[in-house]
Amino acid sequence: MARIVGVITTDIDSVKGGAPIFFAKDREDLQKISHLLEKVMDCTAHEVNADLFIIVDRH
Questions:
Q1: CA atoms of 31 and 36, how far apart (whole Å)
Q2: What letter does residue 43 receive in the DSSP assignment?
Q3: 4 and 22 Cβ atoms separated by less than 8 Å
Q4: Mean pLDDT per 10-residue run, the chain (59 residues)?
């Protein structure tokens, strides 16, 4: 079963919820944080739109 373990966004008003939320200052920072969390958490980063990535654990 997959679960969302993190959300990374540049739009502070676009997300709410139970998963940890990380705010990026721009698109470059968004991609950098997403890929770092993907590696550290041994999960997968998925781009939802230009301002939002989710980190998904499939274990």
A1: 9
A2: -
A3: no
A4: 95 91 97 97 96 95
Name the one residue in this structure whose structure tokens are 């373990």. 5
Query: Are 41 and 3 in contact, with CB atoms under 8 Å apart?
Result: no
Distances (CA, A) of 45 to 10, 22, 57: 15, 13, 9
Q: What is the pTM of this model?
A: 0.90
Per DSSP, 29 falls in state: H
Closest to 48 (Cα-Cα) out of 40, 57, 59, 56: 56
- Into how many domains does the chain fold? 1
How many whole angstroms separate alpha carbon 33 and alpha carbon 21?
Answer: 11
